[in-house]
């Protein structure tokens, strides 16, 4: 078992060398404890991903495709986006604690994680990923809903994110603009799933960081009309009504639990 757990340590050490070795002199990070190297790598990677995805997406929809996807009067101001960046940057060090904790638990054999797809085979791997995503979807839906329904949680945590409640205040940079504890709570289902079923380690880490790109996408106010994806059209309604579309990747949980509100039907009603 110890030999198998070393595979996880070798993988995280490889990620540390790639990320930290790219941005920092080795003498700065090599003496640090392994767990702290992991946190620092997650922090640098998270910040890099946040800014690259945010700037590229904003440049595309607000400059290259100006007035194509978003009307001029609905484009958020630079001040609004800078405020969102400020909130996200204050929270980022805390966000990175969760993947660092999950890596620590995996490396110590506390979870059901496996290192190589060949350990279970491709069919089992795909089934596990599908079940993992269902658990994450279910968990995030209810975590998000309770952050609204439990008044102290909303007042002291989730309200930080919901100051962005109009189309011209939402942007891709709002995707990670949460109270730190709020952002961590909504990502907890990713970690809980590790104790419930076998999960491929690399896939788990990749899906955690894909969250940063996904949250940028669902805050751009553009309704892509790709069923059953819980895209920005649905999520914009969430920011304006507060009582609908709590789901994450898909509309299924909102459909099952009666909180779905369709943006196309909303437009028809307004007409």
Automatic annotation (TrEMBL):
GO terms for molecular function: C-5 sterol desaturase activity; iron ion binding. GO terms for cellular component: membrane. Keywords: Membrane, Transmembrane, Transmembrane helix. It comes from the Eukaryota. The chain crosses the membrane at residues 43-62, 122-143. Its main location: membrane. It is found in: Membrane. Residues 129-259 form the Fatty acid hydroxylase domain. It holds the Pfam family FA_hydroxylase. Coiled coil: none annotated. GO terms for biological process: sterol biosynthetic process. Belongs to the sterol desaturase family. This is Delta(7)-sterol-C5(6)-desaturase-like. It comes from Nicotiana tabacum (Common tobacco). The lineage of its organism: Eukaryota, Viridiplantae, Streptophyta, Embryophyta, Tracheophyta.
